[in-house]
Structures are given as structure tokens and as C-alpha cells.
Design goal:
The protein is of the alpha+beta class and 139 residues long. Helix content is 41%, strand content 19%. The protein has 4 helices and 4 strands, in the order H-H-E-E-H-E-E-H. It has a 4-stranded antiparallel β-sheet, covered by helices on one side.
């Protein structure tokens, strides 16, 4: 997964959007992990590809696996536990738009770069804090 973080860092450096690197990286790491584990079933002979490109007002990343696809419509709301659906939930929370293509073998994550609204940033922060609140331990 270090390669994914390096890729995101290089893209963000090139596009001069380093302040988005953490959000993009976390979302993209979830997509790649899902592709490896659920799409390719940890089969090392199968590949996961990542593409990125600039689009009007932002940037997008597409992650594609060599699996059979899945019923992505059943995921996305807050998972009841830390099991299935957490990765998709995080991708939906952190990206501005998510699309599934090729029967779910590809996920496209879009990030608006022209400027995120303060209310949207706060909403994302609160959602993630609430999601991880049970993990926090007082020192």
C-alpha cells in the first residue's frame, strides 16, 4: 500500500494539491484494498490498476480489479460494525462523487479541487469522528 501513497503524493505534487493528499490517499487505499481482497480474492496473479486524470474542477481516480464484480448497491450506508461495507462507506464519505463501473470491477472516485465548501469539510470531519469515536482511547 506504500506504492499507493507514493502515487497519490506524486499526483498531488504534480497538480499542486498537496492539501488534498490525505483525503485522496485514504479513499484510494480503501478502493485498492477492496480490489485486492474482495475483487481479486488475494490472488497475486491478478492485477489492480489505478488511473488518474484531471477533469473540469477536479481530479478523479479509477481503480479496477480482475474480479467478477459485485452488487455495490447494497453498500454505502453506515456499516453496523467494522465488517463489510466500511471501505465503500469511507470512499463515499471522503470523495465528492463515487461511481461503480464494469459491474463493480471498477470504482471511480472524483474529488472537487476548485475549492471545497467549509460546510462539506465540516460534515466529512464530523462523520469520520463519529465513525471512529468508539476507537478513541483517553490517555
Amino acid at each position: 500500500m506504500v506504492e499507493v501513497e507514493r502515487f497519490v503524493s506524486a499526483v498531488c505534487d504534480t497538480c499542486n494539491i498537496n492539501n488534498y493528499a490525505a483525503t485522496i490517499s485514504m479513499s484510494l487505499l480503501q478502493a485498492v484494498e477492496n480490489a485486492i481482497v474482495h475483487g481479486n480474492h488475494n490472488d497475486a496473479s491478478k492485477k489492480v490498476t489505478i488511473e488518474s486524470d484531471l477533469c473540469k474542477g477536479g481530479i478523479f481516480f479509477t481503480v479496477t480489479d480482475e474480479g467478477e464484480g459485485f452488487d455495490y448497491k447494497q453498500f454505502g450506508s453506515i456499516p453496523e460494525n467494522e465488517g463489510r461495507g466500511t471501505g465503500i462507506y469511507l470512499m463515499k464519505t471522503l470523495s465528492d462523487r463515487i461511481s461503480f463501473l464494469n459491474n463493480g470491477c471498477s470504482v471511480r472516485l472524483e474529488f472537487v479541487i476548485s475549492g471545497i465548501e467549509a460546510s462539506k469539510a465540516l460534515e466529512r470531519l464530523v462523520t469520520l469522528r463519529n465513525h471512529y469515536a468508539h476507537r478513541l482511547v483517553n490517555a
